[in-house]
Amino acid sequence: MEQPAGDPIPFDKFRSDLSRKFQYYLDRATPHTAGRWGGTCGVALLYAVRVYFLQGFYIVTYGLGIYLLNLLIGFLSPMVDPEQETSDGPALPMKGSDEFKPFIRRLPEFKFWYAITKALCIAFMMTFFSVFDVPVFWPILLCYWVVLFVLTMKRQILHMVKYKYVPFNLGKQKYGGKKSSASSSMSKD
Predict the structure, then answer these.
(1) What φ, ψ does residue 153 adopt, rounded to 5°?
(2) What is d(CA 101, CA 157) in angstroms, rounded to the nearest whole number?
(3) Phi and psi (nearest 5°) for 97?
(4) How far apart are CA 61 and CA 24, in angstroms?
(5) Which pLDDT score, from 0 to 100, does residue 189 have?
(6) Under a CB-based contact definition with an 8 Å cutoff, are residues 92 and 56 in contact?
(7) Contact in structure between 132 and 126 (CB atoms under 8 Å)
(8) Where are the beta strands (DSSP E) in 65-182?
(9) Residues 31-88: tens digit of each pLDDT
(10) Do the beta carbons of residue 82 and residue 106 sit within 8 Å?
(11) What DSSP state is assigned to residue 9?
């Protein structure tokens, strides 16, 4: 018996409902930054323990490390790189007299978190398939990754110093202005 043209295929309806429910929970998790990152740290710890006890999957871990380094660079970089392009939109101020423009990341925090969590889950799932357990000498991979991390971070920090931007929001600025007269008169009593 054929499906009428107006009825959706059951699998498509299931996938659509699942996608909608997943997006609902993602939207609800958005304001809970500490909880999201705590869960991601839990997944990372679970992955690390699994790799440690299996004594394998080092190439998967190396690939995960390279991907996470790439995400970190995107998170620390401005949306518009002053070295590469000029834009009519927000850009980093070059001099003290330039207008203040807020730092806008190339990779926003939520997308950064989501990509890291998804990568950790995929890497964790890969540890269940022996085809991904390629035998390698892991200390060389670790040394190579550390050198790559140091060189990449050095370049990023030099870029941050050159263009005078800080990619972190340190909270609301506090001013140490004069105390109110009411509080100073109460302290004299």
Answers:
(1) -70, -35
(2) 20
(3) -85, -10
(4) 31
(5) 47
(6) no
(7) yes
(8) none
(9) 999 999 999 999 999 999 999 999 999 999 999 999 999 999 999 888 877 777 655 5
(10) no
(11) P
